[in-house]
Structure of Tyrosine recombinase XerC:
Amino acid sequence: MSFPPELAPGPAAALEAFLQHLVLERGRSEHTVRAYRGDLAGLLEGMDGLEGLDLAWLRRWLAAGHEAGLGRATLARRAAAARSFTAWAHRTGLMAVDPGVRLASPRPRRSLPAVPTVEQTGAVLDAAGSGAAQEHPVALRDLLVLELLYATGVRVAELCGLDLDDVDPSRRALRVVGKGDRERTVVYGVPASDALRRWLAAGRPALARPGSPPALLLGARGGRLDTRVARRVVHQALAAVPGAPDVGPHGLRHAAATHMLQGGADLRYVQELLGHAKLATTQLYTQVTVERLKVVHEQAHPRA
């Protein structure tokens, strides 16, 4: 049953209640909730009440995104967010009907963006290593950002969310909390281990302040490293290598998976490394059958 019009919460209040539902009842992670907020804020912008949220409104919203040049994957994600919201609103009585049931969305193309080659990635990391030769703390941090992103395939938000307690240097392993608050352990090779040792010995102590958080990576002012800074580090590093594609941290994630599979890594190992809930997501990286993939990280990763 719907609320009486005079008692029904407005779109902004309904959105906040939905986001609380995601956190408290469905256990969604901070990153997932932030993504829902970004998508649904645009959907509800300019609305006086949820009674205007019908199928025509949803279709116009997606069409506007298409005209603005959004990709198929982004539009599909937005449509999924809208369907989740309208289903919740109908179930809780905020909407008399659920228009999202009839909302179709473009099927995202199952393809990968361009990724740097092994040689290009090696040139990026070698250049970052040369830049850190003088032991400047920011240069040491940027080297570690690049090495860990490529060595582990973690998402940039996962990397910037790491605390010191999440690092096990003796095992060369990181404890990572990914989407849906799923925890996994990822390993890294010798070059990343060397970059980590140098950062902990000289870089981090130089940037840390009395009020600094226990974050592994720090910004220039001693706070936790912002994901936007990490993205800028990756873009600038790749821009310095002739012929390398202009990709951000997710491009290094794709590169790690692609290069490992090219080297013979087991598909399910790469699935675990990347934190994919479904093997089908990892299969985007290769047309090779699982039976032909036999080698694990130390044999397959270019920087193991």
